[in-house]
Amino acid sequence: MTYKSNSDIYFPYGKVIPIDNNNYFHYQNIFESYSSQLRLKRNNANFTGKVAWTVSHCGARSKRDQVVDNLSKYIEIDVYGKCGNHTCKFPNEDDGCFQQLEESYKFYLSFENSLCHEYVTEKFFNALNRSLIPVVYGYGPYERIAPLGSFINARSFHSAQHLGQYLNYLDHNPEEYEKYFEWKKLFRVKPETDKDAWCDLCDKLYRNRVDETRQYQWYSDLHLWFNSIATNAKNPPYLRRYKTNGQSGTNQMMDETDDEFSLTNLGEVCVPPFHDTK
After folding, report:
1. Would you say residue 95 lies in a domain?
2. At residue 59, what are phi and psi to the nearest 5 degrees?
3. I need a labelling partner for 175 at 20 to 30 A (CA). Which of 157, 199, 225, 227 fits?
4. Is residue 122 part of a domain?
5. Is 198 domain-assigned?
């Protein structure tokens, strides 16, 4: 029961799913509220926040701190939590903190502490569920689990300078910035819960009990399996059909052998978070 798509029980931190036709008008009203908030950000003369990051694990093996330090040379970044000098009004409530951030900032850094295949934590989905654009840095299958044009992948850029320039471009061009929220007309974020995973487990146990032809699988080396790539993973069909307006920075993956964001330059890349496999 892990976040890896080839787990016996797939348990990600969240999902992006199509809007149910029965609730179409309900979510259209939600989208209108997003649009109103975006317009408020645009017209609010006191709104000066650009990029926010909440972090309590300093010095992560992914070297995300180093990436943020480099990026901060080109765009203003406010750091919340134990590793920063800003504090959320509700430090023990993720939802309350993100509500505060979306009222003051345009971008959120969803930078992972471990660069493991498919490891995407709730910070990405929390930002995606708000009027914030997630800027992601990790080895997650972002293009597979979220609509193109809903996030910005740091590893799509050769350097922190190029990424900072693009974020500043969006900050000064509200029409281009707001394109990153068009996907909300068709999709919504569904947080995963423990209940979902336990129900899947019960269902699997029941099916194995009544179906004697089902095969079983086991793992002789769990660390090796954790570092493997799920070769059979595919985009959900509803995301494969989704088209974007051609935003740059979302699907322009560069050669990873010599750029600043190359995983090969980061030393110890993946430390399986067995203590936090949810």
Report:
1. yes
2. 65, 40
3. 157
4. yes
5. no
